[in-house]
Design goal:
CATH architecture of the largest domain: Alpha-Beta Horseshoe
Largest sheet: 6 strands, parallel
Number of domains: 2
CATH topology of the largest domain: pyruvate-formate lyase- activating enzyme
CATH class of the largest domain: Alpha Beta
Strand order of the largest sheet: 2-1-3-4-5-6
Strand content: 15-25%
Number of strands: 14
Distance between the termini: 39 Å
Shape: globular
Helix content: 25-40%
Oligomer: single chain
Length: 332
Amino acid sequence: MPTEKKTVKSFYVENLGCSKNQVDAEIMIASLIKKGWSFSDSPDDAACIIVNTCGFIESAKKESIETTLSYRELYPGKKILMAGCFAQRYGKDLQKELPEVDGVFGNRDPGRVPEIMDLLEGEEHALMIPSAGSTYFERDKLLSFPGTAFVKISEGCSHGCSYCAIPLIRGALRSRPADEIVQEIASLLEKGVIEINLIAQDLAAFGTDRGGRSEFPGLLKEISKLKGDFWIRLLYIYPDNFPFEILETLRDDPRFLPYFDVPFQHADGKVLEAMGRKGNKKKYLELLSKIREVLPNPVIRSTFMIGFPGEGKKEREELLSFIGEAQLDWAG
């Protein structure tokens, strides 16, 4: 069994799930350090272990529970805080079903984690599920590869795809101010980061919660005004409202990588309609054609769902035909 060395007001973070969860973990670390807590690189040296969970799919839920219980078994004398998406989705139930956990903290405002950490010192079991709050907190500790960082430009999603729990877990779309994002990128570049990965549930939806069209093209133009040598990578752009204006910016500024992660999910119009999406094979092939017309050698990856309710042989063949014609660089 690991030794239970621990420092007063020290913590360790075990991060599970996606890049957006990683940013949340980095915000929790920064907010705790600001309040006088000490970050530990090893759970052996921490008084409290924060498990930043994922609750999107069944395998992720299982991993979240198993990881949390494993830490309880390894460190019976330490405080265990279950945070993140799984905690947000099942908060009150977890209080009853997982007595091994000392606290449960939702994901809508990770910068408030010091509040529940203080509660853990005096309560047997603390629960805190904050309402939607700030999506930004200056991060000093990055969990990504050296020289890289994820920048979350918005939180939540308002698309309402029929298969997706993200709006339930993370709430409706909330876009950050563009100037705040540019300032954060500039700060990260000053700290030695050379590759910035822009992330959101859908980058193209940025700003649409403010009542207008996508503000994503304008954001990229503002980022392009920054001086220096760096790379910008775009992650997760839904195909249904792809902002074609961004292609010229990517073409004219080589610091923007011609990399696109476009989750098509399917190509048959009937299946996509059942998913709550708007596209079809013809529209998606036209999208790919326009990208390749402006950018000669783009890298395009996507994900698909096979066997969605209502999919028959005809619909499956339409999907396979699309994958063959699309010539994607990666499909999963």
